[in-house]
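Structure in, sequence out. Go:
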């Protein structure tokens, strides 16, 4: 079962602030990592402690993408926002 990926307006703003190469990396990795089994923890994906942003984190080098997974009524991954660490 493939999950559709939607980006929040905040996530779109964060991605737009990145360089074009980084934007491409983030979008490609989100599609690759989160369209199938987004709730499966890996070296790049982990379940976070309860927080107001999102329950899951995808690590892409210095970039962190926070997301939530909805399975019903349709499989959906909601990208909350991302942020770059120094």
């Amino acid at each position: 079962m493939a999950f559709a990926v939607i980006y929040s307006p905040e996530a779109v703003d964060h991605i737009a602030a990145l360089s074009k190469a980084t934007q491409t990396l983030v979008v490609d990795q989100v599609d690759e990592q989160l369209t199938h089994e987004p709730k499966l923890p890996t070296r790049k994906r982990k379940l976070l402690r309860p927080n107001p942003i999102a329950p899951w984190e995808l690590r892409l080098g210095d970039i962190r993408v926070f997301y939530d997974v909805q399975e019903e009524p349709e499989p959906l991954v909601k990208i909350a926002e991302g942020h770059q660490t120094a």
